[in-house]
Target: Membrane protein
Amino acid sequence: MTSNVYARRGMDRVRSVLAPFGVAAVTTAAFVYVASVDPNQPGHYPTCPFLFLTGLFCPGCGTLRAMHALGHADVIAAIGLNPLAVATAPFLAFWWARWTLRSWQGRPARTSLAHPAYLWAFLAAVIVFWVVRNLPFGRFLAP
Model:
């Protein structure tokens, strides 16, 4: 009877990390695809709709090429293509690891990603990045 309880707890733990591992699998598959299919070659990916319609760079412009560069261990090129995306990646990895650990420990999932002040600060940083990369003095942020 006792071994049955331990087996059930083990299965509950495995089930609890299925969602984080599923997200990791999908993210890894997408990253491997972008690393192997060069976004610098025309015809592989669609054009950014915002860039196409306005001629201006959105905050995400250059992210595919930056992830491709990271997939080839070229961190400097990735930072040159989209520094915001490269800077955000470690935070996303941290939150994923935290989610996985909390799930494994059987602790309840957080109801929010972060404190609202941090989310508003991040949104403000994205908007500033978006505006500055399209101004003449911010061309170094353009992909």
